[in-house]
Amino acid sequence: QVQLVEAGGGSVQAGGSLRLSCAYTSNTWCMGWFRQAPGKEREGVASTTRGGTLKYADSVKGRFTISKDNAKRTLYLQMNSLKPEDTAIYYCAAGVRGGCFTTSDTSYWGLGTQVIVSS
Questions:
Q1: Other CB atoms closer than 10 Å to residue 85's CB: what's the count?
Q2: Were both Cys, which of 20, 33, 77, 115 would link to 8 (CB 3.0–4.6 Å)?
Q3: What is the per-residue pLDDT across 54-101, written as a single tens digit (0 to 9) for each?
């Protein structure tokens, strides 16, 4: 059983930065960040596996960085140069297979944290 709790969301001006965190109760093969804007499908943002595979959505490459602190049992998403189109609810997820970049690879989910980027 894995429980995930996100934190760090908020409202920022375009060009600003936020760091999201996801505290988890136990380790898994992979973890990822997803986001969902109103009326849109949930999409993968960034993911990492214990095998060392990293993946980012094209829209966030060069701006977002995913990292993990196993000692603190916390997953992070550093978001820089934020744009209005980054506005969404961001979810932390974990899985036991694949790369955790798609929802089909994930079994555990946090409740999400809101990110609003104003122009």
A1: 11
A2: 20
A3: 999 999 999 999 999 999 999 999 999 999 999 999 999 999 999 999
Looking at every residue in the chain, the average pLDDT score rounds to 97
Cβ–Cβ < 8 Å for 13, 117 = yes
d(C-alpha 69, C-alpha 71), whole Å: 6
> Would you list the DSSP string of 26-51?
S--SEEEEEEE-TTS--EEEEEEETT
CB 26 within 8 A of CB 1: yes
- As a whole number of angstroms, the distance between CA 20 and CA 64 comes to 11
CA 24, chain centre distance (Å): 13
Neighbouring CB atoms inside 10 A of 2's CB total 16
What are 90's strand-pairing partners? 35, 113
pLDDT one-digit tens code per residue, 8-26: 999 999 999 999 999 999 9
Distance, CA of 90 to CA of 72 (rounded, Å): 21
